[in-house]
Amino acid sequence: MGHHDDLRKFISELAVVHGRVVLSSGQEADWYVDLRRVTLHHQAAPLVGRVMRDLTADWAYDAVGGLTLGADPIALSMLHAASAAGRPLDAFVVRKTGKAHGLQRRIEGPDVAGRRVLAVEDTSTTGGSVLTAVEALREAGAEVVGVAVIVDRGAGDAVRAAGLPYRAAYTLADLGLVA
What's residue 145's pLDDT? Predict the structure, then answer.
């Protein structure tokens, strides 16, 4: 099996949790995809970096990140995968709100001003979290080239309506969660 199939197996076995949950969007669901069980797993995390780099290979960007916490392990996995392939790629973290002390930065890591960046998220239903990150990145002077998620729960239309290209490594159908 290839990286994409291997990661799908990890997601299906480790991340899909059945039972009533309330999503960050406020919507209710009968199952939840807890991707931190995958993005922070010793065998799956390297696959996350490879799959997400493959997914966005034709987009030109030199930094990756998104709204903390969902995007953080993805960005780091992509940074390490790029480094292993001999390609420089920085990572950054977008805070939900600005810091009230120290340098009072909302975006941590290398400066994103004037840089082409990729916004990532683990899974997205409405696009709210990733679009919050996009807004902060644009305010900081970054050029957001697109949005990529591991699992799409329906955010594609909202992200595209905001004028951004959108890609997902997996759909709910890919995971057998919808017909």
Answer: 98
Residue 129 is assigned to a ligand binding site: yes
What is the per-residue pLDDT across 44-74, written as a single tens digit (0 to 9) for each?
A: 999 999 999 999 999 999 999 999 999 999 9
Residue 39, annotated ligand binder? Answer: no
Tell whether residue 99 is among the known ligand binding residues.
yes
Span 153-170, average pLDDT:
96
User: How many other C-beta atoms lie within 10 A of the C-beta of residue 169?
Assistant: 21
Please, what is the average pLDDT of the chain? 93
30 is in an annotated binding site: no
Kindly write down the DSSP assignment for every residue of 110-177, as one continuous string: S--TT-EEEEEEEEESSSHHHHHHHHHHHHTT-EEEEEEEEEESS-HHHHHHTT--EEEEEETTTTTS
Q: Was 105 annotated as part of a binding site?
A: no
Structural domains for the chain: 45-175 (3.40.50.2020)
Residue 50, annotated as binding a ligand: no
Using alpha carbons only, how large is the chain's radius of gyration in Å?
16
Q: Give me the pLDDT at residue 23, please.
A: 76
